[in-house]
Amino acid sequence: MLRILESLSKPAPNLTEIYFKNFLKKVCDHFNDPDNIQYVKQIAYYGVKWANTCVKPEDDSEEIETMCIIYDAITNFISTLTPLELMTVFPVDKVYDGNKWGTKDYFYTMAELRKIGMGEVIGYDRVFELLWDYANHELREFLVRYMSLMSAMRRTEGRLGVAEEFCILNGITTYTGYEDPETGDVTLFDNKACTETRRANALKTLPWHFEITE
C-alpha cells in the first residue's frame, strides 16, 4: 500500500543574517591578513548585501546609531578600493542611454572613474561623491538607505533630515499633508521652510560632505 508523505517545507533562509555573518567573518580575516585585497572586496560585497536587506529601526536611537557606524565602516572599506577593484565587485550597469534621458549611465560612470584613475585608491574624501555617480543598482540602493538612516539619526537628535535640510538650503518650499480622519481629504500646508532663520540653523548642522556655493 502506497502512502503519500507530506513534504516538509523548509523555512526561507534569513539572508540578512547570512550576509552579516559573512561580513563579520571577512572583517576578521582582513585583520589577520590586512594585505589581502580579496578580503576587502568581500567585506564590501557582504556589507552592501546586508545593508540592502536589513530593516531600518523606527525610533530606537541607539540601534540607529549602531547601524550608522556599520554603514560608515562599509563605506570606509569601499573607499580603500581602486575603481577597477570596485568594478569587479559591483559592475557598472550596462545602461547606455543616459544622455538621452538626462541620467547617469555606463559612460558617465566610466568618465568619473577615469578622473580618479582606475588604479588609484578612491579615498574616503571621494567615496560619497563616487557613489552618487556610480551606476550600479546595489550601490544606489545602499546609498539611499544610508542617507535615510542618516536622516533618522538626525531626527532623533532634534535636527532636520537630509532631504528637509537640502530643501531649506536650496530655497525649495516644502509642505506637510494632513488627512481628515472623517473624509479622507488631504490638505497641504506650506511649511515656510525657506526663511532665513531656518536656513541659518540648517547651515549650522550641515554635514561635512555638503558644500553650498553662493
Task: Provide a descriptive summary of the structure in words.
The chain has helices at 15-32, 37-51, 61-79, 83-89, 98-101, 106-116, 124-133, 137-156, 162-169, 196-204; strands at residues 175-179, 186-190. With 214 residues, it is mainly alpha-helical. It has two domains: 15-157, no CATH class; 159-213, no CATH class. A two-stranded antiparallel ribbon has the order 1-2. Helix 3 (61-79) packs across helix 7 and helix 3 (61-79) runs antiparallel to helix 8 (137-156). The longest helix is centred in the last third of the chain and has 20 residues, at 137-156. The protein starts with 14 loop residues before the first helix and ends in a 10-residue tail after the last helix.
Short description, anyone?
Helix content is 57%, strand content 5%. It has 214 residues and is mainly α. Mean pLDDT is 83; it is low at 208-214.
First-residue to last-residue Cα separation: 85 Å
Please tally the helical runs, counting DSSP H or I stretches of 4 or more residues.
10
Which sheet architecture does the biggest sheet show? 2 strands, antiparallel
Count of DSSP strands? 2
Query: In total, how many domains does the architecture comprise?
Result: 2
Model regions low in confidence, pLDDT < 50 over at least 5 residues: 208-214
Going by helix content, strand content and strand pairing, the class is: mainly alpha
Which percent band covers the strand fraction? under 5%
Share of helix, binned: 55-70%
Strands side by side in the biggest sheet: 1-2
Radius of gyration: 22 Å
